[in-house]
Each structure stands twice: as C-alpha cells, then as structure tokens.
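Late entry, written up from scratch paper. The run itself happened at the end of the previous shift, but nothing got recorded in the book at the time, so transcribing now.
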Amino acid sequence: MPSRRDVLGFGSVTLALLAGCTSGSPFGGDTQQSPSGTEPAETTTPTSAPHVQVGSVSVAPSLVSMNSPDSIGTYGDRDKQFVIARIEMDEQTKRDREAVSVATDGETYDSTPVRDVVRHRSLWGVDSSADQSIDDFVLFRVPKPLDAESATIQWSNGEHRLNDEQVSRLNRPPTTFEVREFSAPDTVTSGTESTLTLTVENVGSADGTFVAGLNRSGPQTAYMPTTAISIEVDAGATATWTHSYTPPVVSRDGDISFQFVMNWRDGDERASVGLEPNE
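Output as recorded:
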C-alpha cells in the first residue's frame, strides 16, 4: 500500500463527505467502466411482517475504501471475496445484523462488520456511487471460490436469491493480474482535458475482476481520492480502462504538475502530467 507522503510533502486535504471528488459517472470524470457484478434480483418476503428489503447486490474480490484521510485503496485477502448488499432494515435488525446471512448448498456465512475490513466509514464504487456510508450496506465475507450451486441472502422471514451471474462470479477461483500500462500525457495545457489509460492483463487461468482505487495529487490540492476502478478481464486477456480529467487553468510560470496514483492489491502505479500555463 503506497504512502501519499511518497508523492507530496503537502498536508492532507479536508474532504466534505468526499462528494466533490468525482464528476460525471459514478467513477468520476468520463470513466469508461462501471462496477461489476451488480445485479438486482427478486426478493421473497412474507407480506405479514417484512422487516428486511434487499435493494442491490454486488460481488467483489476486494473493497475500495479510504486507506488514509485523503486517499483510497483496496482491502481483502486473495482467498476471500465479498457479497455487498444494500438492505433496508428495521431498527431491530440494524442492531443485530448477524440475523442476516448468506446461505449456500450446505454452508451459512454470517454478516461481517464493515469496520472489521476497512478503516473508514465509507465504500467506493458500490451500488453506482462514488462514496457511500458503510451503514447503507451489509457485508458478507465468503471463501474464494465459493463452490456452490446457489446462494441466498436470508433472514428470519424471507430470502433474496442471488442470480446466476453473481453465483458464477462467486465460484471463480483467484486469478493474477499484471498492469501493462498506466500512462497519461507527459504535458498538457492547463484547462485542457487529459486522459489516463490503464491496461491490465489477466495472466491467471480464471476470469476475474481487477479492483483498485485511483487518487490524484495536484494541482491546487495536496492529495485526494478520485474514483474506484473495477474491470472485468477474462483469463489470458487484456482490458483497457480510461479516465478523463481537466486540470484548472493556471497562468503562472514554474513547475506546475499533477499526478495520478493507483493503489491495488499488488502495489501502486503512478503517472505524472506537467502543466503548461494557458496563454
């Protein structure tokens, strides 16, 4: 996990709910990829006493969350994965989230407090949002692969069945990625759009999801989270993801630049862009 102090010696930036860190799509800028494995499915709940309502469900090998006061990174072990569910609950169930579990053919997995996995009270890139409070979700940490024919989120008086695609993702074994490109223009004119390009190769034998957190340092800010990255890559294939950013207009001379920093499970990548004043 990279330290932002390697990037800048500046102080941290106070972020108001991180709401201003991205623009456009849920992943910021003109990002070309949306979160994977997010598929609503039918919920079965007796009408007599419904106290749990499942909204959306995501499957992810890693979570993206704050890893410092002003940057995001990934959390999760290689042999584990996560089912992340947006669930509306009554007050009793909120107090006892273990009442909700994931059940497979012969195993049951209790919910995991999100704070046991991530450091801060937010998740990035889940349920079409850049940044959302962990209180909005129930998290389940299950083996990777799950090796199950079916899986449901269940509680005392109902259940929510995961769809075939989600179960298929849960059954995938871990795979290995290599970053083939992480680049941006050497120099751009301030006020002109620049594009970051990320190319990832899946060098393993199973399809998988590459997950990372993208941050930016400068201009006019010390360090800040930008977007969560989630890319589906088939075994033996490569995939390319892009992110667009327009730096502010600057007119003064001097060494003006900014840098993209991507944190992922196996390390970090950096790309610096010099800024030429806008004439």
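The CA atoms of residues 31 and 243 lie 5 Å apart.
(Scratch paper discarded after transcription.)
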